[in-house]
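EI: anyone free to look at a 247-residue chain?
SC: sure, send it
EI:
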Amino acid sequence: MRLVLMLITICCAVAAVLLVLPAQTRRPGQHRGAAALLALGRALRSRAGQQPGQLRKETAELLRQFSALLASGRGEAQAWADLRETWRGRDPEHPLTAVCRHTAAAETSGAGTAEGLRRALSASELNAHRGPELRRLLQRLLAVTALSEQTGAPLSGLVEQLADSVDSSAELAAAVQTATAGPRLTQLLLTLLPVGGLGLGQLMGAQPVGALFGGGLGLACLVGGTLCLLAGRVWSSRMIRTVMRHV
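SC: here you go
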């Protein structure tokens, strides 16, 4: 029992550390174990919603690349084909790679960029990757593309303006994320502290687990404490979601 409690305590501590580690890639010469820990930390932060503006930054980068290719004299079909190869080499599984693939295919068939974006919006593999956020970004690009096709306005200039707007939105999301980092960490620590406290108390021989599960007052304290912990976590999560919803 002591070994199990010790492992639980250590796992809780490691999870807390990983969530606050800076996101970075593996450097040359870096130990594989350290790289694996950093990758796990990035995965945990991703599941916890730690990088809400990352997709916007990447989308702004894609838009600027598209605008630069158009300004250099390439047609839309060639520009999307170049972007497809660029993003495929960067990350074949990235949702923006799938956007480039669908749009390039539509341009090759003569359907046009707008039709390619509509196909991307309905693609199942995109809905599985941060669907609502990506859908909003694609709808904005679709509106800009449709406006260019209907009015004849230069698409490169419209896309560049859209990239600036998306970039500003990403900076706002990053600022809000930084502001909510403290409450998120506090929420995590307050969730893990009771488990860690029980583990340490058990290791020290105080037998808190036996007292809590022994019935009577101990069991009442366990139920009441658990309910308060859950209520506090739901309340704090709701406040953080309310803030992030308007970003």
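EI: Residues 18-28, 40-50 have pLDDT under 50 and may be disordered.
SC: 👍
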